[in-house]
Design a protein that fits this description.
Layout: E1 4-13, E2 16-26, H1 42-49, E3 57-62, E4 65-66, H2 72-77, H3 95-103, H4 110-113
Antiparallel strand pairs: 1-2, 1-3, 3-4
The protein binds adenosine-5'-triphosphate and magnesium ion (MG).
Magnesium ion binds near residues 42, 43 and 85.
Length: about 110
């Protein structure tokens, strides 16, 4: 099994199919990019990998784990992080606090996270 793999990944928003039958593999240490025009489904793919959107069909696999259906926090604990196109996903916090928030994945101590 590949380090990371999507198999026939599909996401439909009602009648709009944003991602259709997308299969790719990424090996450990590889730098892999998604490229495509505006609205071609790149961010949707990241939102599927993250568990932010439920998958319509297909599968996502990381090491020995199937990610389909797992909550975002479990996917994060398995070692999959992400960044956002917007710099402040947590709106009521400062940019620094937004960055610090991600460190609570590996510590529960504010000083250490900071
Ligand atoms: N939550 C949603 N509900 C309905 N349609 C959506 C939703 N999210 C994305 N879409 C639609 O899915 C398609 C893919 O959008 P997506 O944001 O994934 O594209 P993108 O490749 O990241 O675009 P960009 O280069 O502009 O960032 C678009 O037609 C978009 O309008
Ligand atoms: Mg995008």
């Amino acid at each position: 099994m590949a380090f990371f793999e999507t198999k026939r990944l599909t996401k439909a928003f009602g009648g709009l199919v944003a991602v259709s039958d997308l299969s790719f593999t990424v090996e450990q240490g590889e730098i892999f990019g998604l490229i495509g025009p505006n609205g071609s489904g790149k961010t949707t793919v990241f939102n599927l990998i993250n568990g932010y959107y439920p998958i319509t069909s297909g599968g996502i696999f990381f090491e020995d784990n199937k990610l389909n259906g797992l909550p975002t926090w479990k996917i994060c604990k398995l070692g999959i992080g992400r960044t956002f196109q917007i710099v402040k996903p947590l709106r009521r916090m400062t940019v620094l606090e937004n960055v610090i928030a991600s460190a609570f994945n590996v510590t529960s101590h504010m000083a250490e996270a900071r």
